[in-house]
Design brief:
heterodimer; A: about 260 residues; alpha/beta; Elongation Factor Tu (Ef-tu), domain 3; Rossmann fold; 2 domains; 6-stranded antiparallel beta barrel; 15 strands; globular; B: about 300 residues; alpha+beta; 4-stranded mixed sheet; 4-stranded antiparallel sheet
């Protein structure tokens, strides 16, 4: 019988320091992964945690990890050539096929950007697949900006609004992402989708702002983060009502997500 | 009994030196406490409080092996025997995968029924439909295992519980009830209720290292509790259920609404009443359920009037 909790060792190919608290690990792996899915990463004797795939390529996956706990601190001690344990991929994905040929608005707060990065990279490489893409990405301050090279490149093919919570800087407006949702021309779109990723409060306020600006709730997609101990529907941590985020999520249509009460 | 122990590890409710009645291995049927409800459920036999799932040796990860080849015989009451089906639903069905650690113990489990001479304090199995079972290979009668007789089941409890009639039309209002806020102060968040519950299945996973200089360690599954403040807390500080009242709502709604809604058959409560008996703040689950039933009825009536 297959043990679904058994992690497999994978080699770390490279590490990019995005900020002092966020590193991107490129890991050798040739699994087929959809945009929005996640893995459970672990270091034996320290622990495991669910981490979304922040990029995928021939023979590798990337994970962007924020140093916030015992496990992630342990992972920060690893470098190229070291081994990390993984199991996955888990969860559903963004309905990317439905996004094709339509306008897409992506609103990302902080590390939440990691969960949509592979999708953004895909549409950057295949701009003909999408009618337009608007990216609103917010960070706490200049030092917490992630994926700087990607953000710079995205300006060429997407309509981009980058902002910092309480400071202005070159290429960044001052303010929260919610303040820039008003600039999205929802009424000019004939057919569109909105993707919101980030901390729980940011998702909730951004979705409400989109609705106020005339967006239809059925066109809004969110990716939820919850504590997980197994990611296979057994441990109970990520359950919201009758829904298991690890099984039915992490991507939900807002029409469903708004009714999920923790 | 010697023959029995050759084939089985035998577990039954027995009195421990501290006075509590808990499931443990027995050497004689006379050890079984039958005239009292056990303080803990039998779940710790097939869902251990702490269980090693992997051993880490150098850079290898090895699945732990079961310690005993024998089957497991458990002396249990109808409510607790019914409870194992709820655990089966989570560990063997949810998500379309089977949990290897639960399955390897569960497959070995056989029950001997302990009949209830009468209903104990706090029991409400009749209301939950869990007072009867057919899942046993014998009945404990006069200190022997009787495989011929028909069992006698409890037909009435002192406590009756009305299952709230909750559906999509009022569920948001039920979540929004001011009633839950009372538990912010009242509930201590200690997790005793979930520890004694025969259906509570949530767990945490922890890694341990044997000592500071050791290269070896293991990954363990330990009981978790949705009543504890850290149950939904994520690394980085976000916690979607900071208030005790939110955690009580989470537990209660799982027990009498969303488990059945998801899986269709039964509720995630078998009416044993242990949670109420063990609560240090005397919070009685069955009273909460009855209050919710009244509130649900009021909400339904209000909805009807609004139409």
């Amino acid at each position: 019988m297959k043990n679904v909790l058994m992690p497999a060792p994978h080699r770390i190919l490279s590490v990019v320091h995005e900020t002092s608290a966020e590193y991107t690990f490129r890991v050798e792996c040739s699994d087929t992964v959809e945009h929005g899915q996640f893995y459970v990463l672990s270091i034996p004797k320290i622990g495991e945690a669910p981490i979304s795939v922040s990029s995928r390529g021939e023979g590798y996956l990337e994970f962007t990890i924020r140093k916030v706990g015992r496990l992630t601190e342990g992972i920060f001690g690893l470098g190229a050539g070291d081994t990390i344990f993984m199991r996955g991929p888990y969860g559903n994905a963004f309905p990317v096929e439905d996004f094709k040929g339509r306008d897409l608005v992506v609103i990302a707060g902080g590390t939440g950007l990691a969960a949509v990065r592979s999708m953004l990279q895909h549409f950057y490489a295949n701009p003909g697949e999408i009618k337009s893409l608007t990216l609103i990405a917010g960070f706490r301050n200049k030092d917490s900006v992630l994926f700087r090279e990607d953000l710079e490149r995205f300006k060429e093919r997407f309509k981009t609004i980058y902002c910092l919570d309480d400071t202005e800087a070159e290429g960044f407006k001052k303010g929260l992402v919610t303040e820039y949702i008003r600039d999205v021309p929802f009424s000019a779109f004939s057919d569109y989708n909105v993707v919101i990723v980030g901390p729980p409060e940011m998702i909730s306020f951004s979705a409400k702002e989109c609705l106020m600006r005339g967006a239809d709730e059925g066109r809004i997609w969110v990716s939820l983060e919850r504590k997980m101990s197994c990611s296979v529907g057994k441990c109970g941590h990520c359950k919201i009502g009758g829904v298991y985020v690890c099984l039915e999520g992490p991507v939900f249509n807002y029409a469903e997500a708004k009714n999920l009460i923790d | 009994m010697a023959g029995l122990k050759e084939k089985y590890k035998v577990y039954a409710p027995k009195r421990f030196p501290n006075g509590s009645v808990r499931y443990g291995e027995i050497d004689s049927l006379s050890e079984i406490v039958v005239d009292e409800k056990s303080h803990f459920s039998p779940k710790e036999v097939y869902l251990p409080i702490a269980q090693t799932i992997f051993y880490f040796k150098d850079s290898r990860c090895e699945e732990s092996r079961p310690e005993d080849e024998r089957d497991i015989l458990i002396f249990a009451r109808a409510c607790d025997i019914n409870a194992i089906e709820r655990l089966d639903t989570i560990f063997l069905k949810n998500g379309g995968t089977e949990d290897a650690y639960y399955k390897r113990l569960r497959e070995k489990v056989r029950f001997v029924l302990i009949e209830c001479a009468g209903s104990f304090d706090g029991c409400f199995c009749v209301s939950m439909g869990t007072n009867e079972t057919g899942n046993y290979m014998g009945i404990l009668r006069d200190g022997k295992i009787d495989t011929q007789s028909e069992p006698v089941f409890v037909r009435e409890n002192k406590k009756a519980v009305k299952i709230p009639d909750i559906d999509e039309s009022i569920v948001k209002d039920v979540f929004g009830l001011e009633y839950w806020r009372g538990f912010d102060e009242e509930c201590a968040g200690c997790g005793r209720c979930t520890a004694v519950c025969p259906t509570c299945s949530c767990f945490d996973t922890i890694d341990v290292i044997y000592n500071e200089t050791s290269l070896d360690g293991e990954r363990r599954r330990v009981w978790g509790s949705c009543m504890r403040e850290d149950f939904a807390a994520m690394a980085g500080g976000h916690n979607v259920r900071k208030r005790a009242g939110d955690r009580m709502r989470f537990k209660v709604m799982h027990k009498i609404y969303d488990f059945k809604k998801r899986f269709g058959v039964s509720h995630m409560c078998v009416g044993c009443g242990r949670c109420g008996a063990r609560c240090p703040r005397d919070i009685v689950f069955s009273d909460i359920v009855n209050t919710l039933a009244d509130e649900a009825q009021k909400l339904k009536a209000k909805g009807g009037a609004a139409l």
